[in-house]
Amino acid sequence: MPIPVINIAQMREWENATWAAGQTEAEVIRRVGIALARCALALTRPGDAILLLAGKGHNGDDVRAAREFLKDRRVELLDLVAPEAVLPELERQLSLKPALAIDGLFGIGLDRPLTEDWKKIIETINGSGIPVLAADVPSGLNADTGGPVSPGAVMAAAVTLTVGAPKTGLLAPQAWPFVGRLVVADDVGLVPCLPVGGLNWTLPEDFTNFPPPRAVAGHKGVFGHLAIIAGSFGFHGAAVLAARGAQRAQPGLITLLTQESVYHVVAAQLQSAMVGLWTADLKLPETVSAVLMGPGLAAAGLADAMSLTTRRLWRDSPLPVIVDASTLDWLPLGATAKNAVRVLTPHPGEAARLLNTTSQQVQANRPQALRGVSRRFGNCWVVLKGHQTLIGRSEGEIFVNPSGNPHLAQGGSGDVLAGYLAGWLAQRPLQTDVGKLIRYAVWQHGSAADKLQTTRANWVLEDLLDEIGRAR
Question: Which residues of the chain have pLDDT under 70?
Fold first, then answer.
């Protein structure tokens, strides 16, 4: 199940409940050590050197516990208790260029400004260029606010393995440069008594046995018919990417409706998807079970005609309607058809336009921005894209997606996601849990990029289309 994002006080309550239940701190530390070692092994290769940086608190104990599980690695342990005395040895160890350093200097309990000696330690590590794996929280970061405990003194981690559950500060945009990739060690022996939160971290295990197997006697009529309204002069590729993304979700049928100016070039690139012309008086086939609008509808002169179609479908259609890209700007405010599924997929700049604000303000409080967009457009589902994509509505739980990486920042990746998501939502047997289906599509999209990044640094959108949907 998803893990709630918690603050320091809630983490302390959780720990106290664990000790009261009979679990020992030593056993939890051992399990955290195993989790750290597992993560470090994934980040390095056999024979690589790993430098353990252990402070005097429990974070240091976690790092020390990892040592025995770092098989086939050359491991050096540096106890950092008196920073002024250990700096020369730290500089020597860093000059040997280990493949990874594991940061266990300070944890969530740090509540005092750091001395100049400690600042020098952190500055030296950051300046070394050595990748850092942070234990629970990057040293010097306030785990509640995401800001530095002392200005200019926060460890810059490539990966942070946080213990039990994500801390609120680790998800703050100001903390992202220090947290790096956030991973959760959720099985470390803490008792299962987490509070219910409004913000939740998605785990891959949330999708065990999901989507369910298809009925053995199922046919294409059972698995839905997706209509995609996309593509215009100069932007035909977005329509093709959306259609191919939808194919990876395997709906029964896909019909792509595009502008006459790009019909031939679009149709020539698609085989199993049907391609037709969009007209202002077009009526969708009765078999259609979901509609995607937006990818590639950016050519000049489309707004007047296309906005009428957008507003009508969004306001009145009983079908699931997914709106992406330029079409977001044509949406009507207010309520939609009763119980109809509506999904918006804005990036921060598009969300800012929908809220009449700035992308900086959206990023400053992403959950609030998501709820604001959903509220303005009839309590629709919102996929607020970007680092740690958010999925939710104006009320209820919001889910944080952990997958994906900066290499998704390529033109067309959003079109692939929109098509892939719409391909799932077109399948009526899966429409009983729309929230989970959206989360699954977003997670698969990011996981495909993560897999590609481990095998090919220069992957492109065609590679993403080949990989999407394979994660288990």
Answer: 193-197
Reported pTM: 0.95
- Phi, psi (degrees; rounded to nearest 5) at 201: -95, 130
In a domain, 472, yes or no: no
Other C-beta atoms closer than 10 Å to the C-beta of 190 total: 23
Show Cβ contacts of residue 462 under 8 Å, excluding neighbours closer than 6 positions: none
CATH number at residue 126: 3.40.50.10260
Question: Strand 132-135 to strand 199-201: parallel, antiparallel, or no bridges (unpaired)?
Answer: unpaired
For the chain, what is the radius of gyration of the CA atoms? Answer: 25
Write phi, then psi, for 70 (nearest 5 degrees).
-90, 70
**DSSP secondary structure code for residue 148 in this structure:** B
230 within 8 A of 258, measured Cβ to Cβ: yes
CB atoms within 10 A of CB 281: 5
Domain, as residue range, for 61: 3-195
Q: According to the model, what pLDDT value does residue 1 have? A: 73
Report the CATH number that the domain containing residue 388 is assigned in CATH.
3.40.1190.20
The H-or-E segment that residue 134 falls in is strand 132-135
- Cα(398)–Cα(415) distance, rounded to whole angstroms? 23
Q: Which residues contact 336 (CB under 8 A, 6 or more apart)?
A: 314, 315, 316, 342, 377, 378, 380
- Share the mean pLDDT of the chain: 95
Question: What's the confidence (pLDDT) of residue 194?
Answer: 67
For residue 365 the two structure tokens come to: 């409080």
Give the helix ranges, DSSP H, for 275-405. 303-316, 348-355, 359-364, 366-376
- pLDDT tens, position by position, 222-261: 999 999 999 999 999 999 999 999 999 999 999 999 999 9
